[in-house]
Model the fold of this input.
Amino acid sequence: MAMAFGFSFNLVLFIFGNLMPSVMCRAVHGGRFNREGAIHLNSAQFPLEFNSSNERWLDKSHELILESYDVAHWNGSLFQTFARTKFLTLMYGNVPQMTFFSECLESLSVIQANLTYFEVVAEENQELRILQLVRNRLHTLSTTMKFLVGLTTLDVSQNHLTHIDLDLFSTMKRLKNLDVSVNKITSIDASADLRFAKLKNLWISYNQLERFDGFPSSFPVLETVRLIGNLWSCAWVARARKDIMDRRIVAYGVDYGCSEHRQGGLCCFGSTVHTTAGSLLTETPLFEAIQQLTNELRANPLNISSGEQSLELLTKDAKSREGKILVGVRRDKVEVFF
Done:
């Protein structure tokens, strides 16, 4: 098998071809889910209010799986109820809000629990290594996640995320596995100098991405990636394929039924660029050259000493449809072409 999984649960759906990706479940590197020997409890067996009847569970609660709990806000005091637990999973039920605080948990999984808000107490946490917030209702990721500096695996797949700022994870120096697949992500941003020195596995499949400028430069030791199920620009795919081959990164999955083009197993689409003068440039070798230039400028900006200046794509004739485009500098209302 190409990938080694850290837990025994692995479900692959081969039937019912019309099933949406949101119902697919697959293993994440380093994750924990239904590990053999874990104690399974529900609200009838284990009421969250502490009393002598549930103390016996707490004495042997090294790993707990709690099912079908209805808790409006799972806060720090509830986490303290499980002070001896190392691995905690909340499945199903209804836990719309969670504020994480624990000095002992190494792994936390919240799976299909209608989680909408997840925050972290503003205190650096070195202990939590694995965080899985899967099949929930997250629309954004709180900036307080930066306090989870000990994470090695972060899985926020199958939510409703539309944007990812990788700088939010820059404090996670040990991060090895990142899964943001099966969301609605249209953009992933990253500072030009951002590097994840230990990240080996990246899954961004089944989103709405057209390009990802931080790939793969932000991941110097990346070993595997999943890119399928997006809206990639063909120009971006051409560049990404070269980088993947040069770096010998293993890309999992193949797109089928592409409506326009397929390159290297990925569906891709011809796109257009709007210039500052309003004309259009379709994807051509010139387009790809300009894309390369803008990527290089993003990584190594020009040193402009003063004034309101910017390097832009400019055209002299806004009515021209011949793809004639020049690169120039705009300062105030003055345009200078190169």
Observations:
- Residues 21-271 form a domain with the Leucine-rich repeat, LRR (right-handed beta-alpha superhelix) fold (CATH 3.80.10.10).
- Helices lie at 55-58, 76-81, 234-247, 285-299.
